[in-house]
Amino acid sequence: MINTATAMAMSKNEIFLRINILENKNSILNIILKGIRFNINMLIISSIIGVYTLGSPIIVGFKNLNIKLILIGIVPIAIIMLILSLLTESLKDEF
Q1: Contact partners, residue 36, CB within 8 Å, separation at least 6
Q2: What pTM does this model have?
Q3: CA dist 60 to 11, 30, 50, 54, 75, Å?
């Protein structure tokens, strides 16, 4: 395809945008989503070492065996992950 694009006198930028990016859009979106999920997981795990973040209520809930604290910590994280999943699914449909 790249040879055809160069034969059609496309510039290097056009080839990059129209061929490389559009062919790999699903894998690019998946990599972005994995990066966001990894960062959210690091926020949760960083609570273990004493940093007050999104996962702090979960860790305190596990220490005290308090189900309410665990749910208070899990619900916002689940909502954030659901919103991110919906956004990435809508982005896949737009391309």
Answers
A1: 84
A2: 0.55
A3: 57, 32, 11, 12, 15
With beta carbons less than 8 A apart as the criterion, state whether 37 and 27 touch. no
Q: In the block, which residue shows the tokens 């859009």? A: 25
Q: What tens digit of pLDDT does each residue of 7-54 get? A: 778 788 887 877 777 788 888 888 888 888 888 777 777 767 766 777
CA distance 48 to 59: 7
Which backbone phi and psi does 42 adopt, to 5 degrees? -65, -35
Smallest CA-to-CA distance from 57 within 49, 24, 68, 28 is with: 68
pLDDT of 64 reads 92
